[in-house]
Each structure stands twice: as C-alpha cells, then as structure tokens.
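STRUCTURE:
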C-alpha cells in the first residue's frame, strides 16, 4: 500500500465567517427523539456540553448530508451542514416529522457560524480553549465547539446570534480554512457528493459519526452490513495534487483508464500551490501504480497522511 507523506506547512491563524455552512434548527420536546430515528448518531444521549458528527442517509445507506450537531438547550438541537444542500435536506427531513412535537427550520439567518484556528484564536479564547474535540462551551446564547486539530493546529466552530459582533481576530481566508478542514480528515458532504458514499467510504465511523448501538434510521441495515460483513473495500484517503480538484470529480488508476477508482469527496487549495483532497478510493488501487485526477493520464495524486489510523481489519 502507498505510504503517505506529512503536510507541514506554515500555521494558519484567525477567524472566518463560514458562508458555505448553514444551520438547521430542530426544536420541541420531541426534537432529540425525532432526530434519533433519522441520523447515524445517538442524539438522545447527546449532552449540552458535547457536540458530535452525524450522517443522514437514504434508505440505500448513501449519505444525503453530514452534520455537526449540538444542543442549544434541552429542547433545541442545531445541525450545521453544507449550505448548498441545506434546503433539500431540510425539506426531506420535514417530510418525516409527522406527529412528533418537533419543528424544523433554517436558522442560517439567525445563527452565524465562524471558524477559528491557530495560536491567535487560542490566545484570544484564553481559558475557553476546551481540551477535547467536540467539547462545547455555552455562553450568552453562543456555543463554542472544539473541532479536531488539523495539520497540528487547533480549530473551533463558533455559533452565535447574527447580531453579535464577529470575533476580534485576524481574518482567515476561506481557502486556508477549507484546507484545514481537508487536513482534519473529516469529510463534509456537499451537493456534488450527495448519495455517493456509504458512511464508511468516507471514514465517518472512524471520526465518531456513526453509533452502531443505537436504534434504526434510514439506511441502517446497509451501514451495519458494511461494517460487520467482510472487509471494507473503499476508504477516504488524503492526497495532494498540482492541479485543482473538486468534490465529485472522478479519480482513475494509471493502469485502468476504463473505470474510475474513486471520487474526490472534499478538496481545497493548498497553501503554497496545488490542492489537497480527501478522496474516496478503492483500497486495491493503492497497492501499486499511480492515481490521477479526471483520467488515467490526468494530474498525479500524491498520497499524504491522515491524522488518524484506519484499522487493518476495517480496510
């Protein structure tokens, strides 16, 4: 199997309003129990001081959306997702509320999301840095969520009322934030990748986005079968490339021009030039040869290292 190299680029510091994210609000006494029957994560047991990753699947087990979920209060849960798929996701979720005492709405105009990263953010937060990934600190109607580190740098997601002033931090470019998101190894489903992946294909269960002990949800049988019957043949891996890459773009093995070996799940410009991407790939395609973007003779993909390990018995 191809061994990846490490990304050791300069630190990224500052804050950015995340215009490409949106927020769904689930509110009511049945909000948690409703989402429990829809998402891959155990939302009922989610405490107010923790956030989590979660997937929303079709009946075929393919991801329609991925979320960062957290409680604003005992009857309100926020779901942050890619803005380009929020309307369709909200519409589909709303179809299944039925008699549940849960109101779903687009809260993007009321809740502003900021990405914070690096030493400057840590210094500004002072004692609020939060030690563990997915810890949540709530104050003055805002939630600060500790995200997984990326490229050795700390990151936070800040959700606050739209009327609250932006964090007093240096501006962070959208490209730099997106690159850190890719480096974190956490795939965010976007409109171009809807229904392309079973959760394990993008390592969602490895980063804490799937609970195999909770009750049923759409696609649960497919997701469970992928986990427990045989070895997984596809995974998300990290690559660098000299050319631009985009979610939904097909990837080919140099010796097999006839069929794609995988698909770009998430991509971002790499500081200093080129691009980095999380690519869902056939593991057999990593054993030898080379991988290329768009065609078997396209731009070369250079393996890089994920920030977590893929267990041998799950690959």
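SEQUENCE:
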């Amino acid at each position: 199997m191809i061994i990846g190299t490490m990304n050791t680029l300069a630190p990224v510091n500052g804050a950015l309003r995340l215009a490409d994210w949106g927020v769904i609000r689930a509110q009511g006494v049945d909000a948690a129990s409703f989402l429990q029957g829809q998402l891959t994560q155990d939302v009922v047991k989610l405490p107010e001081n923790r956030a989590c990753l979660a997937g929303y699947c079709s009946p075929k087990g393919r991801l329609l959306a991925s979320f960062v979920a957290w409680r604003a209060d005992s009857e309100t849960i926020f779901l942050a997702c890619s803005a380009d798929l929020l309307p369709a996701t909200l519409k589909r979720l709303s179809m299944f509320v039925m008699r549940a005492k849960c109101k779903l709405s687009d809260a993007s105009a009321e809740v502003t999301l900021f990405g914070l990263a690096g030493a400057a953010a840590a210094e500004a937060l002072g004692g609020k840095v939060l030690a563990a990934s997915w810890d949540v600190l709530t104050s003055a109607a805002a939630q600060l969520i500790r995200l997984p580190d990326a490229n050795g740098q700390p990151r936070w997601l800040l959700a606050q009322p739209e009327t609250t002033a932006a964090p007093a931090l240096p501006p962070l470019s959208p490209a730099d934030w997106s690159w850190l998101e890719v480096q974190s190894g956490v795939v965010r489903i976007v409109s171009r990748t809807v229904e392309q992946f079973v959760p394990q294909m993008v390592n969602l269960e490895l980063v804490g986005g799937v609970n195999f002990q909770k009750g049923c949800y759409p696609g649960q049988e497919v997701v469970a079968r992928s986990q427990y019957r045989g070895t997984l043949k596809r995974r998300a891996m990290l690559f660098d490339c000299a050319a631009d890459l985009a979610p939904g773009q097909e990837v080919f093995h140099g010796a097999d021009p006839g069929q794609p070996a995988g698909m770009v799940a998430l991509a971002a410009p790499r500081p200093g030039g080129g691009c980095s991407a999380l690519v869902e790939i056939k593991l057999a395609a990593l054993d030898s040869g080379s991988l290329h973007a768009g065609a078997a003779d396209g731009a070369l993909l250079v393996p890089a290292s994920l920030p977590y390990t893929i267990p041998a018995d799950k690959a």
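REMARK: The CA atoms of residues 115 and 157 lie 5 Å apart.
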